[in-house]
Amino acid sequence: TMNQSKTISRLWSCLKIYSLGLTLLKLSPACTAKPQAQRRHAAHFTYHPEPAPSQYGPTQKMNLFQSVTSALDNTLAGDPTAVIFGEDVAFGGVFRCTVGLRDKYGKDRVFNTPLCEQGIVGFGIGAAAAGATAIAEIQFADYIYPAFDQIVNEAAKYRYRSGNMFDCGKLTIRSPWGCVGHGSIYHSQCPEAFFTHCPGIKIVVPRGPVQAKGLLLSCIADQNPCIFFEPKILYRAAVEQVPTEAYQIPLSQAEVLQEGSDLTLVAWGTQVHVLREVAAMAQEKLGVSCELIDLQTILPWDTETVCKSVVKTGRLLISHEAPVTGGFAAEISSTVQEECFLNLEAPISRVCGYDTPFPHIFEPFYIPDKWKCFEAVKRMINY
Which range of residues forms the domain containing residue 377? Predict the structure, then answer.
């Protein structure tokens, strides 16, 4: 029939277009320049090690996962009540963050759990309420959702519900977090904004090995339940001189990494390194002086440091990997608009992930890379 002929013709046209697309893709210099494995694992940022801190004693070269291991080692050595548990942690964990700790401290202090996130956090709440220093690992941040009820309805509210008679403040939940280049929906998400709506917990994301160890030890020592998200793409990419002894970096204090006068850049975790490159590009290509702030603690966040910077620069750009709608950049933007409205010289800009599930092969298009952030800087300066 006529309709069948039209349908076959359209299908044939689609097949020809698809075939042509595959041919062009194979011939594209962008696709032939590097082997597939190299392209897939290419990072969207460059990590620049920071100077070794001198105030905490002798240092040793560590990557980020080794600095986490060092923090856990210090805790187990100094606190006989400390226990570490989660899926595969007895064997070192997926990213090797607990490697060697079971052999050193015994199977009663570093042990595996069933594959049940709600059970992991529930056990941690009970252990912490009984007086133990409980360090739970959720294997990927994407897997934390089954434990959502335990975290927001039990851990976060236990002290409040009991009138301070009981608490689980000695609970720390660690989890690998953030995009990795090819992780897709179950291995690249950034769920921190889901938990920022819940009073009673603290949320922390480090940018490198020195901060990872100091902030993790602060979370473990803090008398409130904490969620510590570790940027998994930095586990091996970030290498610095890290103090071997225990030390703490205060929570809820943002750090100004670079002072500037024209525009404030705010990020946390991996995105700090993206914005560091954006600041250099803005200075070189536009003559724009950017002030770069690492928020470090997402909740409770350091409003004073951010607002003080915006009063000085008059402009604010916030960037994170999570979707833009309902992301924590919206909370920062709202607060700054209320506190610094008369100082703003341009609308606040949010450069974030799209409002879609985290993609697989299209992850390079999804992430807020330096080019997207740089375009936002240009728009703000020309506003």
Answer: 255-381
Task: With respect to residue 250, please indicate whether it lies within any of the assigned structural domains.
Answer: no
Q: In what order do the strands lie in the sheet with 297-299?
A: 110-112, 83-86, 134-137, 171-177, 226-231, 202-204, 297-299
Q: How far apart are CA 35 and CA 224, in angstroms?
A: 47
Give percent of the chain above pLDDT 70.
89
- The count of structural domains within the chain is 2
The predicted pLDDT at position 31 comes to 38
Please identify every residue annotated as catalytic. Answer: 117, 187
Percent pLDDT > 90 in the chain is 85
pLDDT attached to residue 137: 98
Say if CB 263 and CB 157 are below 8 A apart.
no
**Position 18 in a domain:** no
User: Which CATH number covers residue 87?
Assistant: 3.40.50.970
**CATH number of domain containing 373:** 3.40.50.920
Angle of CA points 157, 158, 163, to nearest 5°: 100
Among the listed residues 82, 100, 81, 80, the one whose alpha carbon sits nearest the alpha carbon of residue 90: 100
pLDDT above 60 for 9: no
Neighbours of 185 (CB within 10 A): 12
The rounded distance, in Å, linking the Cα atoms of 377 and 349 is 9
Give the residue-averaged pLDDT of 217-244.
Answer: 98
Cis-peptide, bond into residue 209, ω within 30° of zero: no
**Mean pLDDT for the stretch of residues 95-118:** 98
CA dist., res. 307 & res. 344, Å (int): 11
Integer Cα distance of 322 and 368 in angstroms: 9
Element (H, E) at 299: strand 297-299
Residue 79 confidence (pLDDT) above 60? yes
